Amino acid sequence: MPSKALEDYLKIIYKLEESLPDKDGKGVSTTAIAERLSISKASVSNMLKKLADKNLIRYEPYYGVILTDEGNKIALNMIRKHRILEQYLVENLDYSWDEVDAEAEILEHAVSDRLINHMWDALGRPTRDPHGSPIPNEAGEMASETGESLSGVDVGKVCMVVRIQNRSPEELRYLSSIGLARKTQVKVQAKAPFNGPISIEVGGETQALDFRLAQSIFVR
Questions:
Q1: Which end of the chain has fewer CB atoms surrounding its CB within 10 Å, N or C?
Q2: CATH number at residue 20
Q3: Residue 12 located in a structural domain
């Protein structure tokens, strides 16, 4: 069985792969992984060599990291566990959406596939977690992303929030404070040039969003 550290690396690589532009043609950089984990690039390189030796990634310096089929399978299983746990904590234990990530990070390494599947059944087999992120099914298949980033929506358009991707508890609490959550209707009122702040209307009030935060909010 993979160790907790290996599982965490594979999950992070998967998530970073998701954000890569298709046209780039390269894998996930060592720098990106080090920044996500807040550790040195040397430590990351050592772990990547171990993952490559286990045939869980393909790793070439200056080219980047790509998950193998086996690495992808483990990463998706961890993501499935994490997102089902988040949904269970919100629906059954009254956690708020800014609290569940830290709890799920701990629990995902301890629960069995059998228990996760029972929890999934008890929840009614949801396809999305509390933040709108897709939950892989039992076969490890991930639903395709729907919607576009709020940062790319034209001024004057009205849209509905479908997902908030990989944000900190502080950012999630801020979004809650302005009334922005899944299925919230928003209108883009203004966009500052050079990736500046975006003004949106939520619940009849104007609110400001940092461009990078707006990039992680998916709407349709």
A1: N
A2: 1.10.10.10
A3: yes
- Indicate the residue among 67, 87, 111 that finishes a domain: 67
Spatial separation of the C-alpha atoms in residues 219 and 203, rounded to whole Å:
16
Question: 84: exposed, middle or buried (C-beta count within 10 Å: 0-12, 13-18, 19+)?
Answer: buried
Cα–Cα distance measured from residue 37 to residue 174, given in angstroms and rounded to the nearest whole number? 23
Rounded to an integer, what distance in angstroms lies between the CA atom of residue 75 and that of residue 14? 6
Q: Count up the domains in the chain and report the number.
A: 2
Is 95 inside a domain boundary?
A: no
Query: Residues of 103-136 as b/e, b for ≥16 C-beta within 10 angstroms?
Result: ebeebbeeeeeeebeebbeeeeeeebbbbbbbbb
pTM: 0.89
Each residue's pLDDT, cut to its tens digit, for the chain (220 residues) gives 568 999 999 999 999 988 776 645 689 999 999 999 889 999 999 999 999 999 999 988 778 999 999 999 999 999 999 999 999 999 999 999 999 999 999 999 999 999 999 999 999 999 999 999 999 999 888 877 778 999 999 999 999 999 998 889 999 999 999 999 999 999 999 999 999 999 999 999 999 999 999 999 999 9
> What is the CATH classification number for the domain harbouring 208?
2.30.30.90
